[in-house]
Write a structure and sequence with these properties.
Helix 7 (206-220) packs antiparallel against helix 8 (224-232). Strands 4-5-6 form a three-stranded antiparallel sheet. The protein has a two-stranded parallel sheet with strand order 1-7. It contains ten helices and seven strands. It has 263 residues and is α+β, with helices and mostly antiparallel strands. Helix content is 51%, strand content 20%. It has helices at residues 13-19, 22-31, 36-66, 91-104, 162-182, 193-198, 206-220, 224-232, 236-241, 246-259; strands spanning 71-72, 76-79, 85-88, 107-122, 125-140, 145-152, 185-186. It folds into three domains: 14-61, no CATH class; 90-185; 189-263, no CATH class.
């Protein structure tokens, strides 16, 4: 029996594509007794081909999902007093509205979260500040996965424990990463920008700067560790606007440390 596998000439481009798949070439190589190097090359080619097919399937089904044009309503009102108020979408609303549509198109998602410390330069001194990392994974039934990582400082509510403040940030990052990786919009204008302005955006007014100073003084009451974590969460522009106020905040934090007024 002839060891060479005879293949009929394909009659169309579709049949040629079917014949030329790496899986079939690998099968032919095994049958013909190809050496291990050749088999390994074909196996690597098969893996790359499958990964590319998975990416194409991901894109095709993602286009179908985006066609549903889901808008998440902002159902929760948050009032931070002088820090501003805003409406926001809640994480359970985001997952509840996205999950059925994602599943219909072959998608699932999950989040990894990590709590730890991040080394930052603050006022010319390196410090370890509390930090939160969240990674959202959007997974397709054909095997392709895309991921997005967001990070940020923990929340600053004095009524919360440090762990609760970490969880507050994690919940926010999970919501935002899922919205971002799926390209999903929330209803209405971005009201949360009001809070960011109160903490020192480019358009902040005197009243907003005063509110931010108040936040800093509150943080200082918890000592240098709390003040450092709050300061590390600000942008360079925000820190610049607070340069003249920070020395007094730092002095208050050091006094709090000496007095043992924080945990």
């Amino acid at each position: 029996m002839n060891d060479v596998i005879e293949m009929k000439e394909p009659t169309s481009a579709a049949s040629l594509q079917q014949v030329a798949t790496p899986a079939l070439l690998l099968q032919m190589a095994v049958q013909q007794g190809a050496d291990m190097d050749k088999l390994k090359q074909l196996m690597d080619l098969q893996e790359r081909w499958e990964a590319n097919e998975a990416r194409k399937a991901f894109r095709e089904d993602f286009a179908g999902f985006r066609g549903e044009n889901i808008i998440i309503p902002k159902t929760k009102h948050v009032d931070r007093g002088r820090g501003g108020s805003f409406d926001q979408a809640e994480y359970d609303q985001v997952t509840g509205r996205l999950s059925p549509a994602l599943s219909r198109h072959g998608f699932g998602f999950r989040h990894d979260q990590k709590f730890g410390l991040k080394r930052m330069m603050i006022d010319g001194v390196e410090n370890d500040v509390g930090w939160v990392w969240v990674t959202c994974h959007l997974e397709h039934r054909k095997g392709h996965t895309e991921s997005l990582e967001l990070e940020g400082p923990p929340g600053d509510l004095s009524v919360n424990t440090p762990t609760q403040n970490m969880q507050t940030t994690a919940s926010y990052l999970k919501r935002q990463s899922l919205l971002a990786i799926t390209g999903t919009a929330t209803g209405g204008e971005d009201d949360e920008s009001k809070m960011r302005k109160s903490r020192g955006s480019e358009q902040q007014g005197e009243g907003e700067l005063e509110a931010m100073v108040e936040f800093g003084r509150d943080a200082a009451m918890g000592g240098m560790k709390a003040l450092t974590a709050w300061w590390g969460g600000l942008t360079a522009k925000q820190r610049s606007s607070l340069n003249k106020d920070f020395p007094s905040m730092r002095a208050a934090a050091q006094a709090a440390d000496r007095g043992g007024n924080h945990a």
